[in-house]
User: Which sequence fits this backbone?
């Protein structure tokens, strides 16, 4: 394993609205190695998107460290942070909302080049065309507006914009969940290709377990602002430890006629992050919960090689 | 994708100049506007008005202030199509020259309030928090006073005259634009494409200028069109009560005021400037409504 | 042989937009037997939702228009009946579950009232009786009856979808049309709702048309499957037939596009290209520009419905013996 590109220590984000505090991310630690894809899965409201944005400082964290190549970017001033943006980029979920409807495709892709003054002025147009070809967009679309493109093409524009500054690390926030399956496969392949070509490191956020498994080297599972399990992809799927992960995996409808493993259907809804349950946050829905799960919060600890679980019963 | 490599080869690309040509996104709006007959007619009236103002020297039969005391208060006739006033001045010529002033007041006052109000609204909406609070409470104070009263008060302080009228009318309509821009900015600020701009390292200023303002242009344009009508009406009102432009300037409101005393003997002195004001204000309102319908995506089929 | 509940024949729906004709649904035919679930699978713009709306004759006219076809239900052709007759069918004998539980409920009425209204509208009962029945239906979908006095915003997404199901089931319909009922829900909540739907279906012996893009959901719920592409059903069969022996190249493409949790593949094999523009559907077989096995005939000739084994039908020239034999005789290569 190569060394960590990004290391997050005890990251916390609390949103305060009026008198209420939403504990969106509540003390998570993880590291992402150079050139790997770390999958981050969980249900809506578990804090996975917030975590992704925190690592880019698109949202300011309440506390904790974000070390990128050994430097804590939470300590950076505005100027250094702007320089750092060249190293870290993001691909967004909604290809409709993430492109400015009044900017042409060409302008959208050229902006990062202009902001960071990459290349000579007169070469930038050609750079844009090269980027477009790289992501499989017909260069003739350069003067079109986003609403003239379909979802898959727009997502390619988003990818080209992220690639323009030649970053090392890209947060992919549900990049294919708004796309049809046949287009989804095209975009996933593209993302794999550019990862290899540019030696990219991905934080891949998704609720779709089959997609996450397909792209990830390691996977972290989040529940209510905490990481409950973290392991290599195959290990996580074949040697699942945490009861929540087990339920999550069994809940996915698999398109096959083969005998399916017994479904664990969790009762009830995810509790509100405004006042998460005491002790282990999953105890209200956990079929195996014991007395101490209500009181004592389990630590994330290593149970096998590179396999971390936060559960008293493991 | 094989199709891509194919087309890129045969495509003649302007390699030398890195200019990205922009297709006008308002072209659809224009076509939708053309479907609205009433709006097209009112646009015609407005175009006519602008031409009249520009070509006043050519088309006006007499100079605006040429007095002819032998011809006072003549009813409309072949020489004076709309009659003459108490000094024997040709009313048609005065209305034609008056269009220059009305248009000037309308456009300058609105440009002033759109610019200033827009900046205030954009800053308030984008930064939020106490900045927003201070700026918008100040706007609320302005809004608490009826527009025309505010304008009267300002002209009273500054004194009469064209520039002061424009300033007064402009300030009185500031809060409307500040509010509209703030509301649009608030809805755009949290959109993903703004976050995307942040992610590539754009500065706040650049985000406001490139992403936020162009996207809230539509409601501003509509409001500005309606605002021109309000400004023309207010300026005429100010002149009518003697606070605006002073005689002998051919201002429509002032003309109404001057003709008031002869309203029973010589209806034409007040009627025709009145019709001019009504026509322009009506045309602007109808056009503004048509523009709003054309720009509203909910009405898009 | 099972009893047929609804039979759709040669249904075509067309929309007009800015002077252009959009053929949303073209000559589709299918039937649903009593107690069975038919899955209609396809991507955005395939015409799934239009088909569902056309069955209940809820297509907005204009811009939409049902061009031709018949929908035989309960001895009547729903496309020919008067509006007053249809109103008695909708929500009563055929009811619908919508994709977005956030917007399909009326925010200003309590959940109980919304269910009671459907009952009161279709059954000759007093309002108090209707409310009582509404409570028991809520219990049926796993919501305590007391919560009937709460407003939609007090429910979570999964709970709202249960309410949507409760409204749909209020009058014991014979047919339930569910349009992407779990797409907006989280996986664990989706599992709850799917379990609820299959349990209720067995308990009440309701037939169902399930519209979805998710082959996983189909495999858990459906008995029959229809694959739609560009307004046509390109393949139809039992769940077994479609999943064991997907025959149409589009169906195969769909299966290959999904990452499989059970096996590791390095790269996915997507279908090339994009869905065709609905105003310019390609000639011949509408899938031919994206089809890896396209032949010369596919461009010029529309394939007929070819019966394979059992109930399995496919609309593809590869299975048309006259086309394939003609090729062998003239010795043409099978790919252009």
Assistant:
């Amino acid at each position: 394993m190569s060394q960590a590109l990004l290391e997050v220590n005890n990251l916390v984000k609390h949103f305060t609205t009026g008198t209420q505090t939403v504990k969106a991310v509540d003390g998570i630690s993880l590291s992402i190695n150079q050139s790997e894809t770390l999958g981050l899965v969980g249900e809506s409201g578990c804090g996975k998107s917030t975590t992704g944005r925190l690592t880019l400082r698109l949202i300011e964290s309440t506390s904790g460290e974000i070390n990128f190549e050994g430097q804590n970017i939470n300590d950076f001033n505005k100027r250094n942070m702007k320089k750092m943006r060249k190293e870290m980029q993001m691909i967004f979920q909604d290809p409709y909302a993430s492109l400015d409807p009044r900017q042409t495709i060409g302008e959208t892709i050229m902006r990062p080049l202009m902001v960071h003054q990459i290349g000579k002025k007169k070469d930038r147009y050609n750079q844009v065309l090269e980027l477009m070809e790289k992501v499989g967009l017909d260069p003739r679309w350069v003067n079109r507006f986003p609403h003239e493109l379909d979802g898959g093409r727009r997502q390619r524009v988003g990818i080209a914009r992220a690639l323009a500054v030649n970053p090392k690390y890209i947060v992919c926030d549900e990049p294919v969940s708004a796309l049809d399956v046949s287009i989804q496969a095209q975009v996933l392949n593209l993302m794999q290709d550019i990862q290899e070509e540019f030696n990219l490191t991905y934080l891949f956020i998704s609720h779709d377990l089959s997609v996450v498994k397909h792209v990830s080297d390691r996977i972290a599972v989040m529940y209510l602002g905490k990481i409950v399990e973290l392991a290599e992809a195959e290990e996580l799927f074949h040697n699942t430890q945490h009861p929540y992960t087990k339920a999550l995996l069994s809940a996915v409808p698999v398109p096959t006629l083969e005998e399916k493993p017994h479904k664990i259907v969790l009762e009830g809804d995810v509790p509100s992050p405004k006042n998460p349950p005491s002790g282990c946050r999953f105890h209200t829905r956990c079929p195996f919960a014991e007395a101490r799960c209500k009181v004592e919060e389990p630590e994330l600890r290593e149970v096998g090689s590179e396999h971390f679980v936060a559960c008293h019963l493991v | 994708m094989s199709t891509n490599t194919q087309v890129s080869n045969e495509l003649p690309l302007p390699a030398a100049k890195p200019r990205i040509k922009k297709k006008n996104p308002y072209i659809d709006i224009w076509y939708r506007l053309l479907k609205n007959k009433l709006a097209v007619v009112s646009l015609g009236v407005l175009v006519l008005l602008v031409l009249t103002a520009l070509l006043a020297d050519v088309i006006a039969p007499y100079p605006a202030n040429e007095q002819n005391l032998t011809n006072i208060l003549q009813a409309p006739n072949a020489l004076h199509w709309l009659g003459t006033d108490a000094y024997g001045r040709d009313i048609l010529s005065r209305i034609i020259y008056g269009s220059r002033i009305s248009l000037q007041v309308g456009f300058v006052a609105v440009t002033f309030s759109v610019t200033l109000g827009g900046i205030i609204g954009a800053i308030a909406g984008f930064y939020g928090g106490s900045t927003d609070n201070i700026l918008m409470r100040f706007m609320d104070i302005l809004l608490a006073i009826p527009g025309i009263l505010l304008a009267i008060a300002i002209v009273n302080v500054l004194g009469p005259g064209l520039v002061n009228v424009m300033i007064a009318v402009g300030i009185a309509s500031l809060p409307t634009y500040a509010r509209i821009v703030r509301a649009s900015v608030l809805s755009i600020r949290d959109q993903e494409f703004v976050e995307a701009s942040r992610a590539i390292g754009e500065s706040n200023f650049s985000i406001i200028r490139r992403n936020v303002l162009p996207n809230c242009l539509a409601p501003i344009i509509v409001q500005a069109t309606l605002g021109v009508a309000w400004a023309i009406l207010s300026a005429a009102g100010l002149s009518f009560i003697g606070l605006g432009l002073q005689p002998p300037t051919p201002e429509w409101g002032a003309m109404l005021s001057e003709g008031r005393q002869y309203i029973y003997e010589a209806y034409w002195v007040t009627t025709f400037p009145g019709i001019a004001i009504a026509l322009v204000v009506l045309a602007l309102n109808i056009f503004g409504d048509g523009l709003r319908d054309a720009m509203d995506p909910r009405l898009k089929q | 042989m099972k009893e047929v509940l609804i039979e759709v024949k040669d249904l075509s729906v067309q929309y007009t937009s800015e002077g252009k004709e959009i053929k949303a649904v073209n000559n589709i035919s299918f039937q649903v037997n009593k107690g069975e679930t038919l899955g209609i699978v396809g991507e955005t713009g395939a015409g799934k939702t239009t088909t569902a709306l056309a069955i209940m004759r809820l297509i907005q006219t204009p811009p939409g228009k049902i061009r031709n076809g018949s929908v035989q239900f309960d001895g009547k052709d729903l496309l020919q009946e008067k509006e007053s007759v249809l109103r008695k069918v909708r929500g009563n004998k055929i009811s619908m579950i919508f994709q977005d539980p956030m917007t399909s409920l009326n925010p200003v009425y309590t959940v109980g009232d919304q269910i009671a209204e459907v009952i009161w509208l279709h059954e000759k009962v007093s309002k108090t009786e209707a409310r009582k029945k509404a409570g028991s239906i809520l219990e049926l979908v796993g919501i305590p009856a007391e919560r009937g006095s709460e407003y939609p915003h007090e429910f979570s997404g999964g709970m709202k979808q249960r309410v949507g199901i409760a409204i749909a089931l209020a009058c014991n319909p014979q047919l339930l049309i569910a349009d992407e009922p779990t797409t907006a829900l989280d996986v664990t909540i989706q599992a709850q709702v799917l379990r609820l739907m299959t349990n209720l279906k067995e308990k009440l012996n309701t037939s169902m048309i399930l519209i979805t893009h998710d082959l996983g959901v189909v495999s858990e719920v459906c008995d029959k499957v229809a694959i739609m592409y560009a307004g046509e059903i390109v393949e139809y069969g039992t769940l077994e037939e479609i999943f064991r022996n997907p025959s149409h190249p589009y169906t195969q493409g769909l299966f290959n596009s999904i990452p499989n949790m059970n096996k590791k593949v390095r790269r996915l094999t997507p279908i090339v290209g994009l869905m065709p523009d609905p105003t310019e559907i390609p000639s011949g077989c509408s899938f031919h520009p994206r089809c890896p096995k396209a032949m010369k005939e596919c461009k010029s000739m529309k394939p007929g419905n070819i019966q394979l084994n059992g109930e399995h039908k496919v609309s593809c020239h590869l299975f048309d013996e006259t086309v394939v034999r003609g090729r062998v005789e003239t010795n043409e290569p099978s790919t252009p």
Observations:
- The interface with chain B takes residues 17-18, 63, 272-273 of chain C (CB under 8 Å).
- Confidence is low (pLDDT under 50) at residues 332-336 of chain C.
- The CA atoms of residues 302 and 331 of chain C lie 22 Å apart.
- The first helix of chain C runs from residue 48 to 55.
